[in-house]
Design a protein that fits this description.
Helix content: 40-55%
Radius of gyration: 34 Å
Distance between the termini: 40 Å
Number of strands: 26
Length: 591
């Protein structure tokens, strides 16, 4: 068991590759929620600040490289290859986001690269020699990579090909997108033989032999540059965009060319290690889930409270290891609910009045209400067969149809054409308001009904509300009405189930209808479309339902309330621990 539970992390391999600033923070970053993503950000931050690899005094300093770049740009301008841009000011200290090593230089991105826009779609004008070519849109340019699964074509004149065609090593930078994704950058590596770019994708091309596009890609995708783009971008509600002037003005750290190559190589190495770490974390999570499922399934396979106690002891021996994440607690809670509805959570008491007597009382009360004309007699239902029973019920329980013990009714049909002598506008519950175990009342609508209809549609405390339809795995979700509003009705797509007799525990019914057994019944019985499913009243009435003695129902409900409260507390503690880890990881990244 311990060999399975103790995950073996390749720490030695990672730590050997990391520089001291990362080594000190590795364990926390790697294990915190989202820690690998934070580790990637830290690697990029250290890389662009010159802290990931040592400087080499033998390297040609960046100021010499900058002179070469300027000379090459002057040569290209003189040759008529492109126009001279407006001169850019040198970055002042207030603009410099961090201190750089002694042989680096702060420049503007436009000092290094020749930046140009792409083809404007839908242009009006004649073309002497039109040609249709593939082009890149904003959606094709992601951070670090190009998504070429869906490439469109545009018609341009052959004379424009040189202006818009991409060459290996060109940087592609998005003008706009989601506010935190503007300026995402990737390198063109000649993936398509002849390809252009749209005007919403900037192209940045550097001088030959004086430019490392991978270093520029690294910096423009780093948290530092992303903060600049976010601050500079013009923003709407959901989108943001930068213009060419803002891109050219981006303050850019320029290391010696040799050091650029060393940094890029080290970052690639560390990112591969992060990939491996992420894969291991995913594998570890899958193995943990499989182990947890195996052990918890032994609980549901229990056939008596004594056997359950023995199986639970095996799980509790590894409680801290198994329940170390909120999703594991969720799984345990589902198992607890499953045990509850199968009568394994509390012991049976031979002195309890058996469910057969309770059922006789309910049937007698139903006959009385029918005789008084208060409810109608339903069509007789067949007794439940063994094939329909999802488990063997304990002694003293009875299997019934749900419609035998409750009165089920539909709600108000919206848009009815009917006269209303005394109309009144009242809040009503929709399917969206009815979730499992609770009612979401933040967004309530109102409907017109006649006062004479209130006895039919008005909700009373203890009524069960059951969703007719929804996502295929959520149909039949159930919650109890506890008079959250003084007066409220329900829509026709929400069934109301009210106990026929006073000998009725709606919390037990809510518990079973939300259990995996009932959910399997609803999923199998529902009429399904592509994304939605629904049940009708006949299928709800026909649901096979376990009926324990009333006293045992009360004991089960009380036990469930206690255990679910403990699960909630455990989730909160785990969430608080993860939140603390995340905040620490964020603080370390910012150091």
């Amino acid at each position: 068991m311990s060999a399975v539970l103790e995950a073996q992390e390749p720490r030695a391999g990672y730590l050997a590759a990391l520089q001291p600033p990362l080594v000190r923070q590795f364990d926390l970053l790697a294990t915190a929620p989202g820690g690998v993503a934070r580790l990637r950000e830290l690697i990029l931050t250290l890389a662009v600040q010159g802290k990931l690899v040592p400087q080499d005094p033998a390297d040609e300093p960046a100021r010499v490289l900058l002179q070469k770049i300027r000379a090459e740009k002057d040569r290209l301008i003189a040759a008529g290859k492109f126009k001279r841009d407006k001169p850019l000011s040198m970055p002042d200290e207030d603009e410099q986001p961090f201190e750089i090593p002694f042989d680096w230089e702060w420049v503007r991105f436009g000092d290094l690269a020749i930046i140009s826009g792409g083809v404007t779609l839908g242009r009006k004008g004649s073309m002497a020699k039109p040609i249709s070519l593939p082009y890149l849109r904003v959606a094709n340019v992601q951070r670090w990579r190009l998504d070429l699964n869906l490439i469109k074509e545009v018609v341009i004149d052959q004379s424009e090909i040189e202006r818009y065609q991409l060459l290996p090593g060109d940087l592609l930078i998005t003008e706009g997108g989601d506010w935190d994704k503007v300026g995402r950058t990737a390198i063109w590596r000649d993936e398509i033989s002849s390809c252009l770019h749209q005007n919403h994708v900037f192209k940045a091309r550097g001088p030959e032999n004086a430019w490392n596009p991978a270093w520029a890609e690294l910096y423009l995708n780093s948290p530092v540059a992303r903060a600049y783009f976010a601050a500079s971008a013009k923003q709407t509600t959901n989108l943001a965009s930068i213009n060419m002037a803002e891109l050219r003005g981006c303050v850019f750290p320029l290391p010696p060319l040799a050091e650029q190559s060393r940094i890029v190589t080290r970052v690639e190495e560390l990112m591969r290690l992060c990939d491996a770490l992420e894969s291991q974390r995913q594998l570890e999570a899958a193995q943990h889930a499989q182990l947890l499922n195996t052990l918890l399934c032994t609980l549901t396979d229990s056939t008596s409270p004594d056997e359950l106690a023995a199986n639970w002891q095996r799980v509790s021996d590894h409680f801290d290891l198994l329940l170390d994440r909120p999703e594991a607690v969720d799984a345990l809670e589902q198992i607890i609910l499953q045990l509850a509805v199968r009568g394994l959570l509390v012991p049976q008491d031979p002195s309890d009045e058996p469910a057969s007597v309770l059922l006789q009382k309910i049937r007698a009360e139903k006959d009385r209400l029918i005789a008084e004309g208060k409810i109608k007699r339903d069509k007789p239902r067949l007794d439940s067969s063994d094939d329909e029973l999802s488990f063997d019920s304990p002694t003293g329980w009875e299997w019934v149809r749900f419609g035998e013990i409750v009165q089920i009714s539909s709600g108000v049909t919206l848009g009815r054409k009917t006269s209303m002598p005394a109309p009144v506008s009242l809040p009503y519950l929709r399917v969206a308001n009815v979730q499992r175990w609770y009612l979401s009342l933040d967004s309530m609508k109102e409907v017109l009904v006649d006062k004479s209809e209130l006895p039919r549609f008005q909700l009373a405390s203890g009524d069960l509300l059951i969703a007719e339809g929804g996502d295929w795995d959520k149909v039949g979700r159930t919650a109890i009405w506890r008079e959250e509003l003084s007066v409220c009705v329900h829509q026709n797509h929400v069934f109301k189930a009210r106990g026929i007799s006073q000998d009725w525990n709606p919390v037990w019914a809510e518990l079973y209808l939300n259990s995996l057994d009932a959910r399997a019944y609803f999923a199998a019985s529902a009429k399904q479309t592509t994304n939605l499913a629904s049940i009708n009243m006949t299928e709800l009435r026909g649901c096979v339902f376990p009926l324990p003695p009333l006293a045992e129902q009360t004991r089960i409900v009380a036990r469930i309330k206690q255990l679910r409260g403990l699960c909630t507390d455990l989730r909160l503690r785990l969430s608080a621990r993860q939140s603390t880890q995340m905040h620490l990881a964020e603080a370390l990244v910012e150091m």
